[in-house]
Amino acid sequence: MAFEFGVFHEFQRRPGQSEAEAFTTAFEQVDAAERWGLDAIWLAEIHMAPERSVCAAPLTIASAIAARTKNIKVGLGVQVLPLCQPLRLAEEAATVDHISRGRLLFGVGRSGFPRAYEAYGISYGESTERFAEVLDVVKRAWTQETFSFTGKYYNYENVCIVPKPYRKPHPPIRIAANREDTFISAGRQGYAIFVGARRGTIDDVLSNLRPYREAWKAAGHPGGLSARSGLCRRHRRAGVLRPGRDADAFFPLSGGTTRGIGKPRWRLRHRAANRGRATATDAELGRGAPHPGDRRHTGDGRRSSCGTAGPTRPRRHSR
Length: 319
Prior knowledge:
The chain has helices at 19-36, 58-68, 86-99, 115-120, 127-143, 180-189, 202-218, 282-286; strands spanning 6-9, 40-43, 73-76, 79-80, 104-109, 147-150, 155-159, 173-177, 192-196, 224-226, 238-240, 242-244, 251-253, 305-307. It has 319 residues and is an alpha/beta fold.
């Protein structure tokens, strides 16, 4: 069974940091992840939180990462679709896919926080319908030379977007799921999923995987549910779940945080920043010493999070 390891990154702004320093630190961590041979970096989308993050434009950051790296995949974890203009999103994402030469992973969701919706002047109550329309438009724009679309919020007639994605037919799509209807819809359409247990336990997550798996099989998609790849770096544990060829399995991976709750063995933390330096060495970033707040989650019902990334190719991660 093949696994991937990567980083979930918020482009965090630490106390006392300027926005410029936050970007510098985050890109140094991206460069380190590329040097170490990690498989993917996943970017959050966070708005109106100056004390927390500067990652308000993940596709722009993804483009910068694609230009400065050659191997690591660049994932959106997730792009908040209801806040997007679908044609512009299709064009920009396809452009990043070309710059990265097919390394873009298109993770999408609605977000569970209405603050950004309020600021953008969009009702959170419309988010489910808007999400479906935006995703439909983006996929049509990527896969059809010209297309038309009639919806509640968007209408297009004989539209052609340029460029089409580098990867055919389009970058892998993953959907954030936290409700049963989302699990069922994602399974029916054959999408990989992100899953978070922010307010529950791993048992709560597993109970939703049953209808996801059933919907997947009922739609005729091949395979069962298998542990295929991974992502990390948040204040919860991270693992992955992906319908595929292997037997059913769940594999919780170590996650990391700058809040001190958990650290992976190869955590991406800049402890040097606390020592008055702007950067940290690879040795400092790579240390994985135990931490008093580091709670190991092994699928026993304690808090955790998991998700899916796409099919993996065997890499050198064998431990």
